[in-house]
Structure formats: C-alpha cells, structure tokens
Amino acid sequence: xxxxxxxxLAILTLVPRFLLDLDDPIGVQTVGxxxxxxxxxxxVVGAGSSGCVIAGRLAATSASVLLLEAGTDxxxxxxxxxxxGATLGGPLDWSYLTNPDGQSCLGMEGDQCLWHSxxxxxxxxx
Length: 126
Known about the structure:
Layout: H1 5-12, H2 14-20, E1 42-45, H3 49-59, E2 65-68, E3 96-97, E4 114-115
Parallel strand pairs: 1-2
Antiparallel strand pairs: 3-4
C-alpha cells in the first residue's frame, strides 16, 4: 500500500468545497432576466424573508412585480441554522460594521463589531 497525495488532497478539500462552493443546493437555476418590461406596477427591493412575501402577494393580484436582490439563492451552508457563523464576512454577508461608541466592542479592532446581515434570496441568515 502506498500513499497517494492526489487522493489525500481530494479528500482533504472535499468538505470545504462541498459547503462553500455549492451555489445551487435546492435546484433553482440562476437565470438572467428574460423579458424585462419598461414599466412595473410595483418594484420590491430586497428578496429577503419580507421582500419575497410582499412580492408574492402583489403578484397574486395580477400586478406586474419586479423583485430585485443583490444576493444569491444561497449555498448548502446557508441552509444550516447552526452554520450561520461560518458565513460571517463571506460572500453571503454584507459585512457591516457597527459605529464605535466607546462603550461596546472595545476588544475589537477599531472598536467595531461585525453586524451580520445576509445576502441570500428568501432568508436573512440571522
């Protein structure tokens, strides 16, 4: 029996690739706009939990609705509630920082804490 470095590296990097590189865990294909109209009855900015519900209810009234989202449909990692910490500061997070106030986050660089806010379709990761 001999040591196969390629097999070892493939196994070693399997979990990070599985959790971080999957861009379509639920089978929704990323599609560009097919037929954009010149006008819409409603434009909903942000497809988080609330934005999706509002856009869905407006569309149910036969109104024309444009739903805009800066994020993606998430990864497998974003589907696991306990893994929210792994998304901090990554591509699924806006990476907001708090303003220094002299009373909080004193142990952090610049006295600022990371304020987590998700960039994912249909959920806020908080």
